[in-house]
C-alpha cells in the first residue's frame, strides 16, 4: 500500500489540489487549509465557500463564497480579492488567459480582466457554470437548454449550442475542439466547436458530479456509475458512435470522484465508501491507494509530477497519498 498522510477536517472538503508542492484543501466552511509542515488556515469566505477551482493559467486556487467575493489564493497562503459583489453569492469561478478570471452570479457570467475591468454577459436564466477555452479569450457558459460561447474581448454576438434540459457543468477538451456539459439528468452532452455537431453521452445510473481529462485529452473520465466511465475524444468525431471504457468496476459502491494522472495514462478513482483505486488505462490493472473510509470521496488532485494525490471526503476525511512510497 502507498503511504498516506491523513488529515481530519471538520467540514466537507469541496476541492483538494496541489499548488506547486503544497497540498491544499478548500472546505465549505469558508476556510482553505495548508496542512503540510504544521497546518495553516486561510479564512477565505465568511458564511461559507460555494465554489473553488484550480486556475491552470496562473497556477493558483480561485474561490467564491456566500459573501460575494472571488479570491485568488497562492501556494504561500496569500490571498487577493478580485471581486466583491454585495448581497450576492458566487456560483462558479474559472481562470482564463492573461490573468483574467470568470465568475457567475445568478443570470450573469462575468469576466474580470487583468486591469480590473469587469464585463458582464447576461442570460435569461441562471448561469450554472463557466469555462475558458484553452487558447484565446473565449468563454463558455452552461445554462438551461444548452451552452453559449462568447469572445470575451469583443462585442460580437454569442454562439449558442442548444440541447433541452438543465446543463450544470461545462468544460472544453484540452485541444479546444469539443465542449462538454454535465446535465441535471444522468447524462453528459457535447458539441464539436467548429460546426456545433452534438453528441449524447448517456446510460449513467446517477448524476455525473466529477470528471477529468486524461493526459493529452484522449479520454474524458467521469463518475456516476459503479465504474469510471471514460469517453474517447482522440478522433475527429470524439465519442460519437464509440463505446466508452469502463474501469475500476465495483458492484457494491458507486464512483464519486475521478482524477487523471498528469503524466501517464492512469486514473485515480474515488468511491462512495471512501476507497481509492489507481487504474492503468492500457490494461485495466488496479492498485489500491486507500481502503474504505467514513464517507464518499468528494475530490482528488495530483501534484505536477503525479507522485502524490490529495483527496477529500464529504465528512472531512482527507489526506495525501504518496504512490512512490
From TrEMBL:
TM segment ranges: none
Family matches, as SUPFAM superfamilies: WD40 repeat-like
UniProt-listed InterPro entries: WD40/YVTN_repeat-like_dom_sf, WD40_repeat_dom_sf, WD40_rpt
Any single Pfam family the record assigns to this protein: WD40
Matching Gene3D superfamilies: YVTN repeat-like/Quinoprotein amine dehydrogenase
Protein name per UniProt: WD40 repeat domain-containing protein
